Every structure is written in structure tokens, then in C-alpha cells.
Amino acid sequence: MIVAAAAEHAGRPALILGLEGESDPGIAEFRHAWVKWGEIGRIDALIREHGATEIVLVGTVSRRPDFRSIALDPLALKSLPRLAGITLGGDDTVLAKAVRFFEGLGHRVVGAHEIAPELVAGADALTRCTPSRAARDDIALAMRAARAVGDLDAGQGAVAVERRVVALEGAEGTDAMLARVGELRAAGRLSWKGRMGVFAKCAKPRQDLRVDMPTIGAQTVELAAAAGLAGIAVEAGRVMIVDRDEAVRRADEAGMFIVGEGAGTVADS
């Protein structure tokens, strides 16, 4: 919805196609239509009826579809071999296949960061609080760890505390990983006083930023705060901060920092 609002603000009429059971009901605030898994022909028709020249794939899907249990329209049936193959592989592989599929229908896929560049993190601190020397060491380690799991197409984030990696993001996603850190601390498996440690998030080395630019937001801040972390570091130019004002406000209230690291530039892989 944030991307749609940015498009409208820039004078680019937006149509949101929401996947039933996955998309936020709030899309009703915009010109929209609901679609189901398997309605490829309807999706293609809606895009063409809207006169769209560009499409943006945003949001997350909680589970991959089982094509044996959904109703396929004629275009989906015709494309079944390609659609079935899309679900095989890691997230990067799946998304790359999805882009090629829509491009094969004649559509141009663009990134959310191209529509709303103001959401992309810069190389600076967004909060009143800034990283200490110890936090800088944790940032460097957590960034290295996040890039390592990203190289395996496994995740985009990591947590380091006192120069020790304590969590790596996998299929569970960022929120569940941060919640796990909080649970480990509550159980005494991890222990420190006050706020300490860093959650770092960066793009995977071969990530196509048109369809899967990493994001953080106010919820990320809440979970990092609950886990007792000192702050959040994101890869500059390659991570978006949604609900930026709210995320910064919550971080300031918690005495945490949010900082963009590195001189990254937006570049599709």
C-alpha cells in the first residue's frame, strides 16, 4: 500500500491486485481487485484493462501454492509446466522465475524502490542514538553473517551480541528470528545487561531487487527492542524502511539506533 500511495503521489495511477488469503484488507483504500491462486488469465486481463505499462511485485506469501489443489483458468492451464517449475528452489530462484514468467506475457517488472526511492535506506543514522564502538564491532560481524546466509539463499539477516553470532535468519523470516532471540534471552540461554547487540539486514548477493528488496519496519523495531538489542543496521541502498517515521519514533523511545551501513547503490542482479 505504501508503494501504491507513492505511485499515486507521483501521478502514476495504481491498481493493486491482492491475493486472497495473503494480502492486507487495507488495499481497499486504493483501486484494487482480489485474485485467487491460479487466476493467471484474469490477472493478465486486469493489468491490460488498467493500461499498466509496469508491474511491481511486493509483499510476502506465507506459503507456496499447491497446484494440485487450486482451480486453474485457461491461461494457467496452458502455462502449467512453467508455473509448477516456479515453486522449485530457494526464494531468489522462485522470484527470478516469477519475473521471467510475467515478462514472457509482455509485462515490464520494476522494483518498489523505483516507485518509492525515498523508502530506501541511506548510509547514515536515522535515530538520535548512534552505535557505540562495541556496537560497531557487532554490526560488522552481523553484516558478514547475514551476507553468508544470503549467499546460500537462506535468509537476509543475523544477530550478533558481544562479537558472537547468536542467530541467523532462515525460512522462518526476520520476525520469527528476532522473537527467537528474545525467547532465548528469557530462558537464560543468552544473557546480557541493558541493551546490547545488533540485528543486521542486507540483500542477498544475487538478489533481484526488483521483486525482493529486503525491508524492515516498525514491527522489526518492536521485536528487536523486546529482544534487548541495542540497534538495527541495514545495508545502505539495498534495504527499504517502511513506516519510516514510526520505526524511527519507536527506536528513539526504546533508546535504540537504526543505521544504514556501507555505500551501497541500488542495482538489480
Give a nutshell description of this structure.
Helix content is 39%, strand content 13%. It has helices at residues 2-9, 40-50, 74-78, 80-86, 91-104, 112-115, 133-151, 174-186, 209-212, 218-226, 244-254; strands at residues 16-19, 32-35, 157-161, 164-168, 198-201, 215-216, 231-235, 240-241, 257-261. It starts with a helix and ends in an 8-residue tail after the last strand.
Q: How would you describe the overall organization of this protein?
A:
With 269 residues, this protein is of the alpha/beta class. The chain has two domains: 2-115, Rossmann fold (3-Layer(aba) Sandwich), CATH 3.40.50.20; 120-261, Cytidine Deaminase, domain 2. The chain has eleven helices and nine strands. The protein has helices at residues 2-9, 40-50, 74-78, 80-86, 91-104, 112-115, 133-151, 174-186, 209-212, 218-226, 244-254; strands spanning 16-19, 32-35, 157-161, 164-168, 198-201, 215-216, 231-235, 240-241, 257-261. It has a five-stranded mixed β-sheet with strand order 4-3-5-7-9, with helices on both faces. It has a two-stranded parallel sheet with strand order 1-2. It has a two-stranded parallel ribbon with strand order 6-8.
Return the CATH class of the largest domain: Alpha Beta
Find the structural class using helix and strand composition. Answer: alpha/beta
Q: Which outline best applies?
A: elongated
Helix content: 25-40%
